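REVIEWER CHECKLIST
Item 1: Sequence provided? yes
Item 2: Single chain? yes
Item 3: Sequence as submitted:
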Amino acid sequence: MRCYLCPLPIHVPRLLMLLFLLLLFVVAVAAAVVVAVAAAVVAVAAVVAAGETVVAAEVDAEIAVAAEVDAAAAFGNEFEVVETFV
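Item 4: Structure as written out by the authors:
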């Protein structure tokens, strides 16, 4: 059986259509993988940024405690600093 619009056999356009649909499926899967990887990178970056914020806050707290101890020592008041870790 032949196609009336082209000299190719009728199964060739169907095969080309199936190959095109397969190509579209592969492109869609690749795009989904790219989006998933990008979302994972953004999530990891957010966790790292949050961790850096926590570390910076802990360092600031340690600096504040050290400044209080230094200020107390300057006035001759000695006291024991007890740190609690949660």
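Item 5: Key structural point noted by reviewer: Residues 32 and 38 are 10 Å apart (CA to CA).
Item 6: Recommendation: ____
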